[in-house]
């Protein structure tokens, strides 16, 4: 169950083994073990067997039977010289009795030695098993503690990575809201540009006398330029948001990979820490003790984890700074747009008031001109009537003079009535000339008044049209200008 395990035998175990060896030797050397009634067993060597082989009398051996072939003699030197009698299937006298007893003793001694060795092996094996089991349990407990500590470290780092991942993900979501806010603001700016552009287009339709670059025109042009500038600023902010989102998502991907790897490593180490010898999942694996080249060290692993967390924190800090910058930028842009809108509305309102006052004055002048025309026409009629009356008086005077020309001879004299009638005709002629002059002036004045009336009427029509554009069209269109909340992109 425990592979690749080395140990050193302890001194206490060696002492116990030596003591056991001594006990076994004492048991083996006990001379009373094979004694029968105080004497050695007959199947073991006897005292008389210790004599020198040369001193033993050779004993002759009779043939075993008539069927035995050859002479089967035994000699005491046979064992030393290696010569044995020829023995066939019917002979059993190849060895001597002392040799047989010595062979029995050798057998017993070999059995006793093997028994002793077996006892030693049994004792040493049990002691070794106990030592190995204790050492293996200790090593397993140490490795379990290390795995548990590693799992705790992984859990701590996993919590930090999860916290950093959640913070970065929340920041990505917040920045995504700002991205949508900037897109809404671009749509609102498009509406603002349409309002300002339509106002400029309507004011370009004014009649010639009023087609001037007045204050509303200047403010509208400034508003269009401001909207264009704000649009460019918002687009640059949107590009920065998209770039920051890419960086944040890349850091989040690294955190996700780190989180996944740490979760898998935590599960593996937790499973390994809970693995025991009785578990059926504990198997042999070849090459389990190898060190892969791609394996990281503890320092590099911790540095990589800290680097990923620091990278995510840096990206989150950049995102927060960008959101703060967008807030201030949008607030300033909205304030500038609202101020410019107010200036445009005030300029248009003042222009409407001026045009209203001008139109009222023109109408008053038109009424005065009409009254003057009426009076002048009446004056012309009076002058013509006066001229007709003078014509009648001239006729009377000329008739009188013509009648007096009919006087005969001496009666046809230049008397006072004659001079009086001549003076009367002359006076009437002068009066007619004066009245004709006044009539001419009156008629010229009437024509001038009529021309002025026509001009006033035309001017009034133009002013009413221009006032309609500023008051009834532009001011109504300006009411559709986005509110302050829309200019910040919040709605």
UniProtKB/TrEMBL annotation:
<dbReference type="GO" id="GO:0060294">
    <property type="term" value="P:cilium movement involved in cell motility"/>
</dbReference>
<keyword id="KW-0966">Cell projection</keyword>
<dbReference type="GO" id="GO:0015630">
    <property type="term" value="C:microtubule cytoskeleton"/>
</dbReference>
<keyword id="KW-0963">Cytoplasm</keyword>
<keyword id="KW-0282">Flagellum</keyword>
<feature type="coiled-coil region">
    <location>
        <begin position="330"/>
        <end position="400"/>
    </location>
</feature>
<dbReference type="GO" id="GO:0060271">
    <property type="term" value="P:cilium assembly"/>
</dbReference>
<dbReference type="Pfam" id="PF03148">
    <property type="entry name" value="Tektin"/>
</dbReference>
<comment type="similarity">
    <text>Belongs to the tektin family.</text>
</comment>
<keyword id="KW-0969">Cilium</keyword>
<dbReference type="InterPro" id="IPR000435">
    <property type="entry name" value="Tektins"/>
</dbReference>
<keyword id="KW-0175">Coiled coil</keyword>
<feature type="coiled-coil region">
    <location>
        <begin position="425"/>
        <end position="466"/>
    </location>
</feature>
<protein>
    <recommendedName>
        <fullName>Tektin</fullName>
    </recommendedName>
</protein>
<dbReference type="GO" id="GO:0005634">
    <property type="term" value="C:nucleus"/>
</dbReference>
<dbReference type="GO" id="GO:0005930">
    <property type="term" value="C:axoneme"/>
</dbReference>
<dbReference type="InterPro" id="IPR048256">
    <property type="entry name" value="Tektin-like"/>
</dbReference>
């Amino acid at each position: 169950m425990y592979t690749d395990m080395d140990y050193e035998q302890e001194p206490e175990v060696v002492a116990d083994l030596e003591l056991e060896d001594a006990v076994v030797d004492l048991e083996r050397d006990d001379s009373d073990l094979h004694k029968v009634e105080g004497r050695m067993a007959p199947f073991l060597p006897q005292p008389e067997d210790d004599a020198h082989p040369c001193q033993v009398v050779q004993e002759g051996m009779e043939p075993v039977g008539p069927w035995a072939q050859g002479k089967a003699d035994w000699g005491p030197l046979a064992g030393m010289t290696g010569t044995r009698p020829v023995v066939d299937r019917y002979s059993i006298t190849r060895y001597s009795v002392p040799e047989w007893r010595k062979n029995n003793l050798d057998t017993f001694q070999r059995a006793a030695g093997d028994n002793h060795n077996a006892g030693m092996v049994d004792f040493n094996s049990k002691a070794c098993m106990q030592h190995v089991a204790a050492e293996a349990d200790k090593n397993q407990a140490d490795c379990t503690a290390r795995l548990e500590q590693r799992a705790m470290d992984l859990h701590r780092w996993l919590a930090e990575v999860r916290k950093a991942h959640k913070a970065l993900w929340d920041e990505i979501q917040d920045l995504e809201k700002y991205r949508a806010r900037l897109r809404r603001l671009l749509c609102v700016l498009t509406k603002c540009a349409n309002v300002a552009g339509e106002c400029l287009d309507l004011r370009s339709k004014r009649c010639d006398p009023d087609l001037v670059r007045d204050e509303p025109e200047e403010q509208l042009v400034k508003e269009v330029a401001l909207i264009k500038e704000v649009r460019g600023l918002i687009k640059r902010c949107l590009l920065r948001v998209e770039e920051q989102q890419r960086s944040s998502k890349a850091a989040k991907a690294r955190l996700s990979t780190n989180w996944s790897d740490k979760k898998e490593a935590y599960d593996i180490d937790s499973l390994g820490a809970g693995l025991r010898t009785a578990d059926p999942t504990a198997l042999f694996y070849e090459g389990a003790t190898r060190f892969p080249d791609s394996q990281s060290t503890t320092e590099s692993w911790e540095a990589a984890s800290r680097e990923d967390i620091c990278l995510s924190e840096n990206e989150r800090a950049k995102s927060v700074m960008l959101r703060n910058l967008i807030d201030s930028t949008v607030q300033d842009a909205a304030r500038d747009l609202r101020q410019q809108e107010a200036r445009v509305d005030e300029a248009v309102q003042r222009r409407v008031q001026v045009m209203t006052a001008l139109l009222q004055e023109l109408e008053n002048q038109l009424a005065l001109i009409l009254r003057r025309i009426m009076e002048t026409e009446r004056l012309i009629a009076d002058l013509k009537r006066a001229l007709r009356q003078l014509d009648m008086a001239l006729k009377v005077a000329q008739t009188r003079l013509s009648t007096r020309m009919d006087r005969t001879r001496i009666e046809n004299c230049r008397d006072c009535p004659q001079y009086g009638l001549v003076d009367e005709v002359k006076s009437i002629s002068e009066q007619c000339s004066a009245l004709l002059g006044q009539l001419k002036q009156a008629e010229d004045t009437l024509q001038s008044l009529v021309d002025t009336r026509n001009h006033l009427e035309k001017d009034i029509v133009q002013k009413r049209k221009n006032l309609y554009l500023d008051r009834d069209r532009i001011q109504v269109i300006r009411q559709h200008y986005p509110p302050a909340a829309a200019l910040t992109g919040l709605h």
